[in-house]
Every structure is written in structure tokens, then in C-alpha cells.
Amino acid sequence: MRIAISLLALAALAVSQAACHRPDGATPVITGHEMYRACEACHGKHGEGNPAIQAPAIAGLPAWYVESQITKFRTGVRGAHPDDYEGLRMRPMSRQMMNNDEIKSVVGYISSLPVHKSEKLIKDGNAQAGAGSYATCIACHGVKGEGNVATKGPPLAHLPDWYMLAQLKKFKAGIRGANPNDVTGSTMRAMSAVMIDEQMMKNVIAHIGTLNP
Asked: For the chain, how many structural domains are there in total?
């Protein structure tokens, strides 16, 4: 009996040690579709977003961009500022993924969803006036707002207008992009400083709304 108990104890110890050697103590990888169910309450079943709770549409965003943002939320590079209410909500959600395989799994699912074209909610932007301002955005985001993986600039053409306005305000106020480890965020923070007021932001966003990549 003592021998049997000893053998069981050794077996349990071996399993425990094996689990400790897994990345982040991870359990077997869950499919991206299954993991995305935790995101549906905010971002919608099809990744269409929900402006009522400030959750943007994420369907069809490039995998490299979604992965970079999840990593930023997980590490506190993004979403740690006390005034970033939506970011603070995303931080614990991002940490549900236990390892890189699970991150890539849910990222792959999100990027596979058909792009959702959001309803325009900002009505007082002047697209013509915003065209000139957008010239400074082309190097990172593309002439047609298609994005640029080389500069880590995400596509903008199908992002919700209310979300772009909210992020520009956050960058300008230092709520986003102030972390020294957020290289792309710091670039955007500098660019947002060029926007002298909210109307200028609305104008450039209105111009982005006319782009068709």
C-alpha cells in the first residue's frame, strides 16, 4: 500500500512539474472561435463592435495589428492609464489568453471575419478640409487608409469614426502612447499634437471615411 501511494505521489509530482514547464502554465490551446466568445459581449458576435459601450469593430483587422494590441494590453503598454476606461476593461480580457498559441488562435479568428463597415456617427466633419491633414498620415496608414505593416500603421478606412476620434483625443492627452515602450503609440501621440482642435480631428476622420482601399 505504501509503495502504491508513493508511486501515485511521484506521478502527481511529475504531472505538476510538466505543467510548470508549459508556457505561462498554459492548458491545452482553445480554438480561436471558442476563445472569441469571451469577446462577443463587447465586440459582437461578428466583430461588428458596439459604440454604446465604446467597443470598436475589429472584424477583419490584420492579424499582426490585433496581436500587437493584445500584447500591449497584456503587458500594460496600453490600457494602464487611469483615464483609459476602455483600455482598463481590455487589460483583464487580454490576460485570459494563457500563451502565444492562444493569442495567435483568437487573432487568426478575428482577422478571418469579414470586415464590418461601421455606420458614420460623426456628422459635422469636413472631408475636403481634412484631405490636407491626412497627407501627414499617408506614410504609416497608406494613401487609401489600407495600412502599412512595415510601419505598423493599421488600416483606417473601415474603423468606426467615433473610435478614431476617441483615440486621437487619448493620444493628444497622453492617455495613450505615453508609455516609453509603446513605439508606435508615441509616434501617433506626436502626430495627434498637430491636430489643433476636435474639429480638425473630425475633418481628417471625415476624409478617411471617403477612402476605399
From this structure: 2
* Packing angle, helices 100-112 and 63-75, rounded to 10: 140
Q: Cell 501511494 identifies what position?
A: 5
CA-based nearest residue to 80, from 183, 164, 175 = 175
The answer on pLDDT for 13 being more than 50 is no
> What is the phi/psi pair of residue 153, to 5°?
-95, 120
**Identity of the amino acid at 70:** I
- pTM over 0.90? The answer is no
22: left (phi over 0), alpha (psi -120 to 50) or beta: beta
- Domain of 37: which CATH number? 1.10.760.10
Burial of 79 (0-12, 13-18, 19+ CB in 10 A): buried
Residue-wise pLDDT tens digits, 48-103:
999 999 999 999 999 999 999 999 999 999 999 999 999 999 999 999 888 899 99
* 101 and 140 together in one domain: no
- What are the cell numbers at 21? 514547464
Q: φ and ψ at 45, to 5 degrees?
A: -60, -35
Q: Are 12 and 4 in contact (CB under 8 A)?
A: no
